[in-house]
Write a structure and sequence with these properties.
The complex is a heterodimer of chains A (about 290) and B (about 230).
Chain A (H helix, E strand, L loop, with lengths): L5 E11 L2 E12 L1 E7 L5 H8 L7 E6 L2 E2 L11 E4 L11 H11 L6 H11 L15 H13 L5 E5 L7 H14 L4 E6 L2 H5 L2 E8 L2 E6 L1 H9 L2 E6 L1 H10 L2 E8 L2 E7 L16 H10 L1
Parallel strand pairs in A: 3-8, 3-9, 6-7, 7-8
Antiparallel strand pairs in A: 1-2, 1-4, 4-5, 9-10, 11-13, 12-13
Chain B lengths: L1 H13 L1 H5 L4 H19 L6 H6 L5 H28 L2 H8 L6 H25 L8 H8 L2 H18 L2 H17 L17 H4 L2 H23 L4
The chains are: A alpha/beta (about 290), B mainly alpha (about 230).
Chain lengths: ~290, ~230
């Protein structure tokens, strides 16, 4: 029976001078997609940089399959695949040459040509692989980015904002790639596009104010937030008043002077409000960001 | 671990002309510039009374500016060109991940390739430039070698500012400001850190010690600039 991979982030803190970016972060994850959610400035990219060895935490440790990632010298690039948010390469390098370079840097033992051909086929890069990267569309560039990250079958994949800048069709395609590759690797993706995580994520970690606001599954996230979210149908005048009293997480116009709002339940319930049977993951996310 | 580092270095050299210098364009451009310099030096040599003039504390700016300022500027501009795309589209982040460790060794090698070629080219061309003064004797050797700190210094300054600010234009701006101020002040503005020690005749006009200290300082500063540029802050 396959044991699977295990990543644990233990009491990790990071600061720039006196500015705390991450404060005592701890969580663990296994094979599959773990989505790291958080508003801009929450510390997602910093955490990614710590995991990839680009930054050192002020305290704490990161263990991958029992090995301290930060104490391993040199950093094990063969074990960890990384796709940065702003993945780009010199425009006059071909996709094939880049994959060949990464293959050699990772010191992969398999047959080079076969491995690259397999990756090219898997990510449908065939039509462009011998073209200069400068000619690639955003979608192809992102595919090449994920191809270089997964080459050599790393046990940990770190992907920063995987679908940023892609059109809806490319995003759907990219999500299916992520779903496929995460079967045998811990795939940690940082995003603020809820749609990216709803279908495929096994685990969600929400960062807020430099700490973890939530760590669990999609179902747990919804279950924990649904009891604290109320729905109310109201008119415009009452809505203006409610905006001052409660934290509204969704507003929808139903008619000329009719609105349906969702808000975070306060100590005192508001007359006429009720708990719905279903809420969206986006509602749950906003709840965790505002509670 | 040593073996591992050198293996990674081998990978860098193996892929150099497919990743960092496609089809050797930068190399060819460097060699073309050095060829032009060589041709110029052959066609327009320094006057034969050069040594007598500088011993009389004359400033031979028209003669020495070529190797004091023009050649180092070309080396610095080639450095800017070689690293321009690293910072234009944040490629440096991606490449930095694949070269873990306290020093970005590929950056050192890329810089050293340009500087090495310019140093060799400058040394040989200057040998021909000063051939009427001394043709490849000991004096000729010293006349040619005295310009090398300028090449190392200015290109290291360019790399340092570019790498620290992650912006090629900032590197160009600071380097050009330094260059212009030093050139037009005839070495008075930066004094011991001036590149114009030969053109401003520091050796005879001030003192041999001052001149040698200036050359040494430029080399030390270049080492510091290179260290700052290539040190990966984790």
């Amino acid at each position: 029976m396959r044991m699977g991979n295990h990543l644990s982030i233990e009491n990790v803190s990071f600061s720039y001078g006196k500015n705390v970016v991450l404060d005592n972060i701890s969580f663990a994850c296994r094979d599959g997609i773990t989505a790291l959610l958080g508003n801009n400035g929450a510390g997602k990219t910093t955490l990614m940089n710590l995991l990839t060895g680009l930054k050192k935490p002020s305290r704490g440790r990161i263990m991958l399959n029992g090995i301290d990632l930060l104490k391993t010298k040199p950093y094990p690039i063969d074990q960890v695949g990384y796709l940065p948010q702003t993945f780009d390469m010199y425009g006059n390098v071909t996709g094939y040459d880049l994959l060949s370079y990464v293959f050699d840097l990772k010191k992969i033992k398999t047959n080079k040509k076969e491995t690259i051909d397999e990756i090219v086929e898997r990510f449908h890069l065939g039509p462009v692989i011998h073209q200069r990267i400068g000619k690639y569309s955003g979608g192809y560039k992102r595919r090449l980015g994920i191809a270089q990250a997964v080459i050599g079958k790393p046990t940990l994949l770190i992907i920063d904002e995987p679908t940023a800048g892609l059109d809806p069709e490319e995003r759907a395609q990219f999500r299916s790639y992520l779903s496929e590759i995460s079967n045998d690797a811990i795939t940690l993706i940082s995003t603020h596009i809820i749609e990216d995580v709803e279908l495929y994520s096994q685990q969600i970690v929400i960062l807020k104010d430099h700490s973890i606001a939530f760590n669990g599954s999609v179902a747990e996230m919804i279950a924990e937030s649904i009891t604290n979210i109320r729905t109310l149908e109201t008119d415009f005048a009452a809505l203006m008043d409610l905006r001052k009293k409660v934290t509204i997480i969704e507003e929808k116009r139903l008619g000329t002077d009719r609105y349906r709002i969702r808000f975070i339940k306060d100590k005192q319930d508001i007359a006429g409000s009720y708990q719905e049977k279903e809420i969206s993951l986006e509602n749950a996310y906003i709840y965790f960001q505002n509670r | 671990m040593r073996t591992s580092i050198f293996k990674t270095d081998n990978v860098f050299f193996k892929h150099y002309f497919k990743i960092y210098d496609i089809r050797g364009f930068k190399l060819i451009l460097t060699l073309a510039l050095l060829l032009l310099l060589f041709v110029y030096s052959v066609l327009f040599p320094a006057p034969s009374n050069y040594l007598i003039s500088i011993k009389a504390k004359n400033l031979l700016k028209g003669v020495d500016d070529l190797y004091d300022y023009t050649v180092p500027l070309l080396a610095a501009l080639m450095t800017a060109f070689a690293f321009f795309n690293d910072y234009k589209n944040q490629t440096y982040r991606f490449l930095g991940y694949y070269h873990p460790g306290p020093f970005n060794r590929p950056m050192v090698y890329r810089w050293a390739t340009i500087v090495f070629l310019f140093c060799i080219g400058s040394f040989v061309s200057a040998g021909f430039y000063y051939r009427n003064v001394s043709f490849f004797g000991l004096t000729g050797f010293f006349l040619s070698v005295r310009f090398l700190p300028n090449i190392v210094f200015l290109s290291a300054l360019m790399l340092c500012i570019t790498a620290l600010t992650k912006n090629s234009y900032a590197g160009l701006f600071v380097t050009l400001v330094y260059f212009v101020l030093d050139l037009f002040s005839q070495g008075r503005f930066f004094k011991l850190f001036s590149m114009g020690a030969n053109a401003a005749n520091f050796y005879y006009a001030i003192s041999p010690e001052y001149y040698l200290f200036n050359r040494l300082l430029l080399c030390l500063a270049a080492g510091c600039f290179l260290g700052l540029a290539c040190y990966q802050r984790r």
